[in-house]
Amino acid sequence: MPIRVLSPNLIDQIAAGEVIERPASVVKELIENAFDAGARRIDIDIERAGLALIRVRDDGCGMDAPDMALAIERHATSKIATLDDLEGIASFGFRGEALPSIGSVARLRLLSRCRDGGQGNDQGNEIRVEGGVRAPLAPAAHPLGTSVEVRDLFYNVPARRRFVRSESTEFGHILRQVERLALSEPGIALRLRHNGREILELPAADERSAFEQRIDRIVGAEFRSQALAIDDSGGALKLSGWLGLPTAARAQADRQFWFVNARAVRDRVLGNAVRLGYRDVLYHGRHPAYLLYLTLDPRQVDVNAHPTKLELRFRDSRAVHERVFRSVERALAGTRPALPAAVSPQQPPLRPASAALDFDAGGLHGAGADYLARSSFSVAQALAAAEPHALQQPLGIAIAQLHGLYILAQSPEGLILVDTHAAHERVLYEQLKAQYHAAAPASQLLLEPLSVAAGEHEIEALLAESAEFDRVGFQIERHGPERLAVRRVPALLARSDIAALIAQLGRELTGEAGSHHLDGAANRILGSMACRAAIRGQRALSLGEMDALLRQMEHTERASQCNHGRPTWMRLSLQEIDQLFLRGR
């Protein structure tokens, strides 16, 4: 078949295939054009999920007659003029493809009027495009701003129309697209109607309180109440927004919003950085909720990676990843027990009974007892912590142990329940991480090497991480084709089943038992060590031991979740307890 030059109409339809995937794509392009025009209010009218009609009207700067004629030409734009402009794009649109692409697969009507009247008059104009065929420019009455009407989308491309889903599915995509755009530019009022019914009415949110109301309307009223505010403005990057608490994680990744320089994006670098920040506080298989805004020099990010402009390329992706990861990690480190907001900071803490101050590790055996016996919280410190007005105690005072599994503590607000193993596991894990980063692990040399049986590939995986094992207090070496010799172990694990732990780590490193939720060999090792060494179920604890663990939790980062992301404690208020017993106060 000979090579031939394609017709302009066919070229437009090919280009439209990249830009216009579905009705929601049209809505996105038109709203972003309104943003760039300086609109303060945008009205969106949809009929039959956008297949019959998409109308976007704004009160922006508008266009005069010459600009309108150019707007429907391919690669005609007011956003960039030189290569330097392309390398530092600050606008939403810039490619000059949206309107001609839409006009090639629909019946397009563009109406506009300039704020200054263009040629010295205040007359508006309109231009029509049907299936790529342009009609002459004509006068038309129109208020200041621009309206774009798109009718019969894909009417001339039957193959594309067959891929359109049901009306409810397609309108769902439109609604989510409008919501994301509303979160990207909160200072612009938006109204969305579908088949004549109002779906969204969002006033301009210039104040923070109004912006928060918009978030509650779009993301959900409970989102901010279960999230941490983040505002990291140091250096050339600024990261702000909200991080959902690990306990509010979801089964689906449906509440994850990323905005870079106000542009809604889907980016692997950013998504991975956040996931890594949640690495040891999130339950396996769950997804965090977050709403995050990253601001940086436009020259440090390339938004010209794809016609839809949803994908990015950072000039220094490693630096961006590290900054986002560290910011998220630091913010989540504060997920430790805290007093409820309703409690007055002047309210004195409960004073424990004297029996609760008798620290006795005799009820414990093994590594858990050794650890509690070496606790940095001495009896004297516990006494000092218990004095009126000296220290608030979010987890209250231990009063009992339930089934050898849970600690019951009384607080001024009600009852605290603590999962003993999960809580101790987190305390140990954070201590081990601190020792690891300080390169000062306490270890013990074995009188005789411990022989551990493992598969050849597991031994290879373990030996490949021998440097990390050394840093946490292990000394391992090959002792045969399917044998590993352990000569030194962390002091914390001196009485633990080392062979079982090493075998477990070998399976995790090779992926045979499923990948561990933590990233990196060191964290996998430390997490498994903490889990093995933590207090086991059915261990009787004295009140003093329980109180010591509570105080440790209050001073330990991420103590509200164990290493696997499970909650370590919960609070039942007196009001909630009263309701259980139908008791009025």
In short:
The chain has 585 residues and is α+β, with helices and mostly antiparallel strands. The protein is 34% helix and 22% strand. Strand 1 and strand 2 form a beta hairpin.
Question: How does this structure look, described?
Answer:
By secondary structure, the protein is an alpha+beta fold. Helices cover 34% and strands 22% of the residues. It has 19 helices and 23 strands. The strands form 5 sheets. Strands 1, 2, 3, 4, 5, 6, 7, 8 and 9 form a 9-stranded mixed β-sheet that branches. Strands 10-11-14-12-13 form a 5-stranded mixed β-sheet, sandwiched between helices. A hairpin with a 2-residue loop joins strand 18 and strand 19. Helix 13 crosses helix 17. The longest helix is centred in the first third of the chain and has 18 residues. The protein is elongated, with a radius of gyration of 31 Å. The termini are far apart. About 9% of the residues have low confidence.
Give the biggest sheet.
9 strands, mixed
Q: Strand portion, in percent?
A: 15-25%
Measured between the Cα atoms of the first and last residue, the distance is 88 Å
Topology, number of strands: 23
List unreliable stretches of 5+ residues: 344-380, 382-387, 512-518
Helix content: 25-40%
Sum up the overall morphology in one term.
elongated
**Mean pLDDT across every amino acid position:** 83
Q: Structural class of the secondary elements?
A: alpha+beta
Rg over alpha carbons: 31 Å
Total of helices: 19
